[in-house]
Amino acid sequence: MKRLSKEQIIMLHSQLIEQTGGTTGVRDFKLLESAIETPFQSFAGEKLYPTIQTKGTRLG
Q1: Number of domains, the chain
Q2: Is residue 1 part of a domain?
Q3: Best label site of 11, 29, 46, 59, fewest CB within 10 Å?
Q4: What distances in angstroms separate CA 9 from CA 1, 19, 35, 39, 52, one per listed residue?
Q5: Is residue 42 classed as helix, strand or coil in its secondary structure?
Q6: For residue 42, which phi and psi values (nearest 5 degrees)?
């Protein structure tokens, strides 16, 4: 699975806002970083989101 960087996600968000309207900018960078990393978490050596579908669902 390809991982987007924080900068890429912010750029995509800006482009989406340009096309559809809304508020620009990021309110909480730490929360954004947490959301980006969540699908790749593991516990006791096991992935919490093992498939691309579960990772995608978590990101969405």
Answers
A1: 1
A2: no
A3: 46
A4: 15, 15, 11, 15, 18
A5: strand
A6: -140, 160
